[in-house]
Each structure stands twice: as structure tokens, then as C-alpha cells.
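look at this fold:
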Amino acid sequence: MRTGIGGLGWRPSDFWAATLTEFFEAIRGYNDANGAEEDAGAPTDNEMAGLLAKYGG
């Protein structure tokens, strides 16, 4: 519900009336429109080293 109502801006009645397919397609459309990556994947070894250096570990 948080994603449908808060993230997508749906009314509760829209959320409850949607099928799972409609809900997940709406999320995909929202992500596409907002520049989200399809599959960011796991961080590389170098990215992990940078994160650990920055935030500890």
C-alpha cells in the first residue's frame, strides 16, 4: 500500500482495484519515467572497496 498510495499517488480505491500485474507495471512505468535502472546489479569489488572506505566495515 505504501508504494501504491505514497509512491505512485494512487487513491486507496485505485490501489485495491488494481491487479498485481497493473500494480507492478505501474511501478515499472514510474521507475522508467524517473530514470531508475532496470537492473543495477551487485556492486563491483572496486565499488565495495570505496563504500567500505567511506562508511567502514
